[in-house]
Specification:
Elements lengths: L6 E2 L2 E7 L2 E2 L10 E3 L5 H7 L3 E19 L7 E5 L3 E12 L1 E2 L7 H8 L6 E12 L4 E26 L8 E31 L2 E4 L3
Antiparallel strand pairs: 1-2, 2-3, 2-5, 4-11, 5-10, 6-10, 7-9, 8-11, 10-11, 11-12
Length: 209
């Protein structure tokens, strides 16, 4: 992953064009931001499209814990008793999540909230449950995530083509500064736990009951 843009007081600056990271060069005109060089043909097709520069992300308050129950093996397994086992042992991956990037880069969001929002963590699942009753058993592995709000602002405008002799090429002509883009939530993986239950005579009970 590329290094995040500079961080100051929880605010992160980055340059975005059409959802990707763009290079920015100084310019005498404060309303003009240069973007990465590209061919004249592709640049012509992009001219007129919306662009965004100088993305700023700020971390918000903790919003609580989110629990996810993946409805697939090995996160969820079923079996019928009695005189058998539900068993599994192996490495699985869990990813951090965001509800929306709001066109900000993952690097800038990660720098603001304090963890890598696209990171995966390997974790070990291991369980062995004896099915002692004549019943239908389920083991559900629950993923727990801690969530934090974040807020995004951007300078926005349209992509323009410079004159043949200007040496600028394709650039972002910023028309509005510090435009609020909204809020979203970043979730960091926290923990796993198992829930074992069985269903017999039309009722669902905990395995420990």
């Amino acid at each position: 992953m590329k290094k995040a843009a500079g961080l100051a007081g929880g605010i992160v600056g980055a340059a975005l064009v059409a959802g990707g990271v763009a290079a920015v060069a100084p310019d005498d005109n404060p309303s003009v931001e240069r973007v990465a060089a590209t061919s004249s043909e592709s640049a012509g097709k992009k001219a007129g499209q919306r662009c965004a520069m100088n993305t700023k992300v700020k971390k918000g308050k903790f919003v609580g814990t989110k629990y996810v129950k993946p409805n697939r093996h090995p996160w969820r397994v079923t079996g019928e008793g009695p005189n058998s086992y539900l068993e599994y042992s192996g490495e699985e991956k869990v990813s951090n999540k965001i509800t929306s990037s709001l066109n900000a880069s993952y690097e800038s969001i990660s720098a603001s909230v304090g963890f890598e929002v696209s990171a995966e963590k390997s974790t070990r699942l291991s369980y062995r449950v004896k099915l002692t009753k004549k019943a239908f058993y389920t083991i559900q592995v629950v993923q727990g995530f801690k969530g934090w709000k974040f807020y995004v602002w951007q300078d926005v405008g349209e992509l323009r083509m410079g004159t043949p002799h200007s040496g600028i090429g394709l650039y972002c002509d910023v028309s509005k500064r510090n435009v609020y883009q909204g809020e979203a939530v970043a979730y960091q993986f926290w923990t796993l736990f198992n829930k074992c239950s069985y269903r017999a005579k039309g009722k669902t009970r905990n395995c420990s009951a």
